[in-house]
Amino acid sequence: MRAAIMTFDGYNELDSFVALALLNRAAGWRAEIVSDKKRVISMNGVGIDNAALVEGLPDYDVVLIGSGVRTQAVAADAALMARIRLDPARQIIGAQCSGALLLARLGLLDDMPVCTDTTSRPFVEAAGAAVIEAPFHARGTIATAGGCMAAHYLAAWAIGMGSGAAAARGVIDYVAPVGEKAETVARVMGVVTPFLTPQEIVAI
Q: Which residues on adjacent β-strands are paired with residue 6?
């Protein structure tokens, strides 16, 4: 499975790096940072070079959109948004916090409930999204997560969708705090499993 973590200038490191690290721990997965230009700088000044540009997004099986302090500017950039092509019919697509705004601008949310963070909620709602007070929600191949620490929900769901719940459970167990593994796995899988199909739940 190839996964893209969409990351723009002003990105939130927790969103991009947690998802990147977790997806790359799943057997047979390769996650990469993808953006609109070769180098992007985080909200805290961390610069990274990308593996690919947004024009390559159709080649990925999974696309997760992180948040950042410039998401509204990205959403308002018609030329940049025109470069982003996603297909929920064949891709697993998720967004965290303000990343939900980009899904709304791309017309991918329809009337599905949306999760986002408190700061982003007003402008996500202004884009027509129905925001709910929850850390994670998915419908079919599209999901949203709200709050920086919700990155593990989004990553676990994506792995569950692509490789089955057992694979997701294994990744979360690996990174969970020592002494809290059982509780962490139960909490994370309890949140995402209702949004997996029976086939995904039993897939190995």
A: 34, 65
